[in-house]
TrEMBL record:
Highest taxon of the lineage: Bacteria
Record bears the keyword Hydrolase: yes
Protein name per Swiss-Prot or TrEMBL: Acyl-CoA thioester hydrolase
InterPro entries: 4-hydroxybenzoyl-CoA_TE, HotDog_dom_sf
Keywords assigned: Hydrolase
Membrane-spanning parts: none
Amino acid sequence: MKSFSKQLSFRWSDLDPNFHVRHSAYYDFGAQHRIEILESLGLTMKALQMNHFGPILFREECVFRKEIKLSDAIFMHTKVSKLKADGSRWSIVHEFVNEANVLHSTITVDGAWMDTKLRKLCDPVPEIALEAFAAMPKSEDFIQL
């Protein structure tokens, strides 16, 4: 698998006054896709709650290259771009491309795993998270941290 991919469906409420997708909607699409991916890899909300951990973000950045309008056919491709060997820190990239594979925007997030009981970073990272990230597609420029 090259990436986790899905076609996006835009709503009227995703638009800004200039009739293109508002900046914050991109982040919402990225967050939703990350949760869908985690769920598909066994990191369901129930599994996270039972194991008392969850993902947290330190940085989230979007680079906008080409506007997206309501009727555009856009696909989001998601990959891991950086990962520490112990799984404690990671980066995920979401690329928004059209049918011709023209890049419209890129979201990059840097994150880690938080122990939800202790309210601090997990040490060690739960095995279920390590297995999930091992199964995730890596970007072409993937870096092992």
